[in-house]
Amino acid sequence: MSCLTPDRIYAYLDGDLPEPERLALEAHLAGCGGCRAAVAERRLLAEAADGLALIDIPDDFAASVAARLPLGKPLEAARKPVFLRPAAWAAAFVVLALAGAGGMLLTGASLPELARASGRFLWADIQGLTSFLARSVAYAAVAARVLGRLLIQLFEGFRVLTSLIGPEVRLACLAAALVLAGAGFALWRRKPHGERS
Amino acid sequence: MNDDQDLIRRALQGDGGAFEMIVRRYQQPIVNYVGRMVRERELALDISQDVFLKVYAGLASYRPQFKFSTWLFKVASNYMIDYWRKKKIPTVSLDRSPEDGEEDRPVQVAADEPSVARQYELRELRSRLDAAIGRLPVSLRELFVWRHVNGLSYEEMAEIKGIPVGTVKNRVFQAKEMLKNMLEERP
């Protein structure tokens, strides 16, 4: 077995190594003073860290937190999605009933007539929306076809242009593109990320 | 603890005394965590008070299927992230890999005796270690403190931060190696 890496030492000290690996590691430790010292050093640091002094807290700490509690206000419960709230369903029902009653009063129509008229109105809306969606899809398909032809022309132009340059220049271009791609990837890897749990 | 659920239920019903008992139960771990992060006792006490007030304000969103202490540390950690942001102190991403090949490099120790131990007595070592913790990057410091001061498991830490257990372990190892290197520097 070769000498230990720090992560294997920590895994050993945490008791994370499987039995055969632990035994092999201990056999190595028996014959390697450097690794033995490395393990002892890290064990000592862990022991020192585990025994760090506690921070002294004043006796009235909890009482002073309690004194600042807004006890008069009710604690806000976690908000459920709207469709899971009974109040939202009740409100929707009330709005619908009021709209129906208002419609009956204003038009003088009976409830079934009003329901039929509303249904026709809604159905016309749905039909209009469907027609609008179908037209949007058709326009998008035409736009995609035009864009596709444009790209083909661009590629063709690029092919003609590149056929005019010599093999050395092609190679140089290829190398430059590779270097740029590599640099871009390296920059992206080094970009710091914010942290938030 | 099952007692926690009872205290939380009572606190949710407006029992301030029950919440005070929750504070008493968790004040030491939270102050130890915050204190080791900000390295100033008075400031740590103030922040810890605010953390507990935040906990109280959000108590209704706590779900009993999760461990209360884990949720508590999550609230505290989020508070600290906002604190560092306001102070404009950068936090190192936990996604960052260790330096090239750092983890695979075998250790190099010259003699058959711990070099850190050679330099310091345990008490002095603790005092120097305490100071060195303050020089760790914030995100590594947090994980190290949770592990060694608060005694959290890697699984709990992973749950609090929402990252894989393996990543937590690697970052704690990285923090320990940084501390070891700091302690090996001559004072």
Structure write-up:
By secondary structure, chain A is mainly alpha-helical. Chain A has two domains: 1-51, no CATH class; 88-190. Chain A is 74% helix and 0% strand. The radius of gyration of chain A is 37 Å and the shape is flat. The model of chain A is unreliable at 192-197 (pLDDT under 50). Chain B is mainly α and 187 residues long. Chain B folds into two domains: 2-87, Rna Polymerase Sigma Factor, Chain: A (Orthogonal Bundle), CATH 1.10.1740; 115-184, Winged helix-like DNA-binding domain superfamily/Winged helix DNA-binding domain (Arc Repressor Mutant, subunit A), CATH 1.10.10.10. Chain B contains nine helices and no strands. Chain B has helices spanning 2-12, 16-38, 41-57, 68-87, 115-119, 122-133, 138-148, 154-161, 165-184. The longest helix of chain B is centred in the N-terminal third of the chain and has 23 residues, at 16-38. In chain B, 37% of the residues are buried. The model of chain B is unreliable at 93-103 (pLDDT under 50). The interface between A and B is large, with 56 and 76 residues.
Please outline the major beta sheet of chain B: none
Question: Helix coverage percent of residues of chain B?
Answer: 55-70%
From the helix content, strand content and strand pairing of chain A, which structural class follows? mainly alpha
CATH architecture of the largest domain in chain B: Orthogonal Bundle
- The count of strands of chain A amounts to 0
Specify the structural class of chain B: mainly alpha
As a percent range, the share of helical residues of chain A equals: over 70%
- Runs of chain B in which pLDDT lies below 50 for 5 or more consecutive residues are 93-103
Query: Looking at the structure, what is the overall shape of chain A?
Result: flat
- Average pLDDT rating of chain A: 85
Please state the oligomeric state of the protein chains shown.
Answer: heterodimer
